[in-house]
Amino acid sequence: MKITVAIDSLKGSLTSMEAGNAAKGGILRVYPEAEVFVRPLADGGEGTVDALTEGLGGRIRTISVSDPLGRPLQADYGILTSPGQCEPLAVIEMAAASGLPLLAAAERNPLRTTTYGVGELILDAIRQGCRRFLIGIGGSATNDGGLGMLSALGYQFFKEDGTPVSPGAAGLSELSSIRTGSVLPELSACSFRIACDVTNPLCGPNGCSAVYGPQKGASREDIVNMDRWMQAYAVLTARQFPHADPTVPGTGAAGGLGFAFLSYMNAVLEPGASIVLEETSLESFIRDSDIVITGEGRLDGQTAMGKAPIAVARLAKKYGKPVFAFSGCVTPDAIQCNDAGIDAFFPILRSICSLEEAMEPASARKNLSDTVEQVMRVVRRFS
C-alpha cells in the first residue's frame, strides 16, 4: 500500500507538514506496512514559505526590511536547493513585508503604504545566490503599483522637478519619469513565478483601486484618484516597456504589484496551488500511490472553486486515484468538493468544544490522526 498525503495548513493550529504527519500516524496504525509519502501543500498565500521550506528541506532566512509604513520589521523567507537545480529557489510571501495584518486599522492608508520591503526581500535573496523566485502576492496593504518594490531593486521614479516620488500611491500622482540605469544587474538573470489567484486588471471598475482600495483604508475620493494615477503610470511604463499591458488578468493583484512584475521583471502569473504542486513534484508521488489524502482547515464551497485540496484531487483523478479529505470543519456547500474530485471528506472534530480548544495543536493533531485511522479501517476492511 502506497499513500500520498498532502494537506494544507490548518491555519493557527498545524502547519502543512504537521498535519500530514498526523495523518500518517493514523494510517500506520492500520497499515503498518504502508509507504506513506507526506508532501507539503500550500496555495501561494499564508503558510507557503513554511510549508515548502519545512517540507523540502530548505532554510528560513530572517532579515530586517521596511514594513508598509517604512518602519523596521523582521521578515522571513525561504531558500530551497533542489537536486538538478544549479541555483537555489527563494520562496517569498509579499505579506511578510507589506501585508495588511502588519498595520492597525487606524494605520491603513494606501496613499502612504509601500511595497519597498518586498523589494528588500528579493534583493537579499539575490545576494544569497537565488535566481529563481516563487512569490505569493496575496494580502497586501498597498496600492503603489509596485513602485516601492521596484525602487528597492534600482528602478528610479522621479517627479517633474527630478526628485524621487513619495512612497505609496501618492508617488503615482507625482510620477513624471522612469529611469533604469541603476537597476540591479543580476535582476536580468532572475525568473519569477508569481502565485496569483485573482484576475483583476490594473485599472477600471474591476481594478485594484476600486475593488481592494476600501479594505486598505481608501476613501471614495482616494479610489477615483488612485485609479487615474494608475492609468497614467501604465501609460508611462509602456513607453519604457512596450509589452506592458494593464488589462492582463492579475495585473491588479496586490495593488498593482502584478503589473509591476509582468512589466518590469521576467515574471509569469500563475495559480498558486499549481506552482506549489509542480515545485514539490507531487504528481510523481500521486502517480505511484494507491490512495491520496488531502485537506485544509475548513472545507467549503470556496474550496471547490480551485483551492489547494482540489488541485491535489484533480491531479489524483488524472491517474484514477481515490481521494479522501480531512478538515477542521466543513460547511453544507462543501458537498461541491465531491464533484470536484474529492471522493469523501471528513471533519476531524470529535466532541463538542470551543474553537480555541479545537485549534490547540495537540488536540488538532490527535483529532486528525484518530479520524484518519477510522477511515483507513474502513478501507482495510472492504479492500
From TrEMBL:
One of its GO terms (molecular function) is glycerate kinase activity. Belongs to the glycerate kinase type-1 family. One of its GO terms (biological process) is organic acid phosphorylation. It comes from Clostridium segne. It comes from the Bacteria. InterPro entries: Glyc_kinase_flavodox-like_fold, Glycerate_kinase, Glycerate_kinase_RE-like, Glycerate_kinase_sf. Keywords: Kinase, Transferase. This is Glycerate kinase. The keyword Methyltransferase does not apply.
